[in-house]
Amino acid sequence: MGIEEARRLIDELDAKIVALLEERLELCRRVGEEKRRLGRGLRDEDREAEVLGRVPSRWRPLYRLVIEECLREQARGGFRGGV
């Protein structure tokens, strides 16, 4: 496999990763709505530890960023423009 083919495959994977992250964010919005309905705080450290425990250690720093972005989205109320 040459460089160009590998880069094309990487680009395809990147598009899939972004789509999955957007799907995750949408689910986090729903969780945030339910947390507000139940009067619960946004941060659940036990849940975060559970999620991070399933992620290989090399990816945990990146996954912490994903969790933080999801928490920011929940704090904003999950509202998207035009919706």
Helix content: over 70%
CATH architecture: Up-down Bundle
Q: Any low-confidence stretches, pLDDT <50, length ≥5?
A: 79-83
Q: State the end-to-end CA separation.
A: 44 Å
**Structural class, from secondary structure content?**
mainly alpha
- Continuous helix count: 3
Major β-sheet annotation:
none
CATH topology: Chorismate Mutase Domain, subunit A
Dominant shape: elongated
- What is the domain tally? 1
Q: What is the percentage of strand-forming residues?
A: under 5%
- Mean pLDDT, rounded to whole units? 92
What is the name of the CATH superfamily? Answer: Chorismate mutase
What is the string of SSEs from the N terminus onward?
HHH
For the secondary structure, the number of strands is 0
Q: What value does the Rg take, in angstroms? A: 16 Å
Structural description of this entry:
The protein is mainly α and 83 residues long. The chain has a single domain (3-75), classed as Chorismate mutase (Chorismate Mutase Domain, subunit A), CATH 1.20.59.10. Helices cover 73% and strands 0% of the residues. The protein has three helices and no strands. The protein has helices spanning 3-38, 45-53, 60-75. Helix 1 packs across helix 3. It starts with a helix and ends in an 8-residue tail after the last helix.
